Amino acid sequence: MKRAHYIAFALVIVATIVVLKLPPRAATQFKLAIGSFFLPLFGLASSSQQLAEKAGNAVVPRKELLKQNEQLRRENAELRTQLQRDAELERENERLRGLLGFQKTSPLKLKAAHVIARDPANWWRNVRIDLGKRDGLRVDLPVRTAEGLVGRVSEVSETSSRVVLLGDANCRVPAEITDAQGRQTVDRGVITGGAGVLDESMVELSFLSKPGAVKPGQLVKTSGDSSFYPAGILIGEVVDTRPENFGLVHVARVKLAVKMHLLDEVFVMMQ
Amino acid sequence: MNALNTIFILTIAFLAVFVESSFGTFRRFLGAQVDLLPALMVYASLSAGLTTVTLLAVLGGLWFDSLSANPLGVSILPLFLIGFTVHQFSHLILRGQTYAQLVLGFAACGFAPLFTLLILFSCGAEPILGLGLAWQWFVMTTLGGLLVPLYFKLFNKVYRTLGYERVPETSFRDDREIKRGR
After folding, report:
1. Is B172 a member of any domain?
2. Which ipTM value was assigned to this complex?
3. What's the number of domains chain B is made of?
4. Considering the domain boundaries, does residue B55 fall inside one?
5. B126 to chain A nearest CA, in Å?
6. What is the pLDDT along chain B (182 residues), one digit of tens a residue?
7. Of A27, A30, A169, the CB nearest to B128
8. Interchain proximity A42–B22, CB inside 8 Å
9. What pTM, to 2 d.p., does this model score?
10. Quick check: A37 contacting B, CB < 8 Å?
11. Is A5 on the interface with B (CB under 8 A)?
């Protein structure tokens, strides 16, 4: 082996150790800076996808569009009515909280974002979205879809952010199990990680205290015990339970309400 | 040609990382994303110098980690070890043979994820583990290995298109012609 080869080998080892040992803040900044080189490509991919969608829409028959329009009008009217009712309930809730001397809750705003990339490594569950610091995002904001909770923001750059999804070990969510109607709390636990490498739709709910009361089909929602996630966001439903560590703890498998592999548009809950 | 070769390999690596991150067809149907860099490293180590191998390992690893939740720098060492080892023995390897390319591709694509996981564990990270990982490893090894001959074909085609056409040499020389008389 030539001397130059030894030098190259040593240099790479030293460089790797230096990069791995960078302070977390510096490493994140460095990572975001390198990741920003890909932004033009992501923009290009996103705009070409939109162009293809537009081209697809152009060939939809007028009859079909009118039908969809009518259906959306009807849904819109229904949702407006529901919104008015919800606003009334919220006002009443705030008034009663005020009477009881509880702290006022600040209303959550949703910001829509597109998923532009996924983690290229198989052992993480992360996606990248097209909102960043300039849109007011910060680390630890919860992310959801209309179906339920998706995860939380874990890294924020100027124009994009990384969202760690439910099922990743870095996304632990305090949750409660309610009956199928969602009225009565049956048990509480923590979503700790994925229930399988290949199945992105299953997660594990650990630290159950009353496993006997937990039944398949019961709903799992955020409990509000964490400062990150507001209470009452649907996570999924219980599939089964099993004892672990010789019956000392019980774990439930939960089927997520959101289809993580089909994520395209998400909402960041701004606080 | 050397600098062009290096630039071209690095450009392909950059695009490969983008493709891995943006297109999830394999992930959707096979449950695993194929890593395109180890196969490219095999090509680079058989056809370029150690500088290219080192640059590909460092830049490719950093690009990959920047789009992943991996701690920054985790992917550099596995890529470099593949490139360095293959490069050391490149004079003994029949690099034009598809069989040799496949064997090296399978070995490299099988080694890279295992070594990356080993580094991740030693860094205290908590990647998702389970029996499904064996299937993912199989998919990454098989499809990644099959990519090496494709990289050779792609690069050969590009160099044939962009490079100068080789002038065919003939052994005939005017001044050495033996003129036979009657």
Report:
1. no
2. 0.83
3. 1
4. yes
5. 6
6. 578 889 999 999 999 999 999 888 888 888 889 999 999 999 999 999 999 999 999 999 999 999 999 999 999 999 999 999 999 998 888 888 999 999 999 999 999 999 999 999 998 888 888 888 899 999 999 999 999 999 999 999 988 888 777 777 777 777 777 777 76
7. A169
8. yes
9. 0.85
10. yes
11. yes
Interchain contact, A12 vs B57, CB within 8 Å: yes
Residue A77 CB partners (closer than 8 Å, separation 6+): none
Domain boundaries, chain A: 3-56, 62-105, 106-271
To probe the interface with A, which of B11, B14, B20, B21 has the most A CB atoms within 10 Å? Answer: B21
What is the CATH number that goes with domain A106-271? Answer: 2.40.10.340
**Chain A to chain B Cβ contacts (< 8 Å):** 153
Instruction: Write out the DSSP string of B30-78.
Output: HSSPPP-HHHHHHHHHHHS-HHHHHHHHHHHHHHHHHTSSSPTTTTHHH
The H or E element that residue A222 is part of is strand A219-222
**Exposed/middle/buried for residue B115 (C-beta within 10 Å: 0-12, 13-18, 19+):** middle
Q: What's the gap in Å between the CA of B119 and the closest CA on chain A? A: 10
